[in-house]
Amino acid sequence: MPFTKDGYTLYSRTVTLKGGRQQTIYFFAKGKPKSGAPAELPNGYEVATTTRTGLPILRRKGGSKWREMRAEAKKRAAERKAKREAKRKAMMEERKKRAAERRASSKTKKTTKKAKKAKAKAPAKKGKKVAPKKAKAAKKTAKKTVKKGGAKKGGKKTKAKGKRK
Q: How confident is residue 116, by pLDDT bands cut at 50, 70 and 90?
């Protein structure tokens, strides 16, 4: 008596593989296939239904070693990933700590430089009472007029008159 489930009948067929080896394959069909004979459920196998298509399939009873090995491999991979992530977080914390230390040290260096400059400039400025910003602005405008060739009336450039030979 052939095995049936949900209107599907189990069939078997013997095929020749590329290496010349003979192997029996099992498949489910609703109608009569072109080749293959109705078959009983083989020993050590059970029928399951796929969740995606709802079709019956054969699988080994008690799960396969492959599934167990794959589950263990996934578990080890997850452990390695967690370890890498923890290492990366620790490294990032160390980098942040070093960056904060560098910022703090550069800040202290800047403040000490400013203090030294202030001490050095304080006695020299006692005699002068010129605002440094205004002096700088005056120098900049003087440089601009020199570069342009001075202020000329009319805005046109004239040729320099000189002796011709």
A: confident
- Residues 97 and 95: their CA atoms lie apart, in Å, by 5
From residue 46, give the alpha-carbon distance in Å to each of 5, 53, 145: 12, 18, 98
| Burial (CB count within 10 angstroms: exposed 0-12, middle 13-18, buried 19+), residue 39 | middle
Residues sharing a CB contact under 8 Å with residue 71, sequence separation 6 or more, in sequence order? none
Alpha-carbon distance of 29 to 23, in angstroms, equals 19
**Global pTM value:** 0.40
Is residue 163's pLDDT more than 90? no
User: How far, in Å, CA of 63 to CA of 66, rounded?
Assistant: 8
Percentage above 90 pLDDT, the chain: 50
Please choose, from the candidates 13, 53, 51, 58, the residue with its C-alpha nearest in 3D space to the C-alpha of residue 33.
13
The total of other beta-carbon atoms located within 10 Å of residue 10's CB is: 22
> What pLDDT does residue 104 have?
93
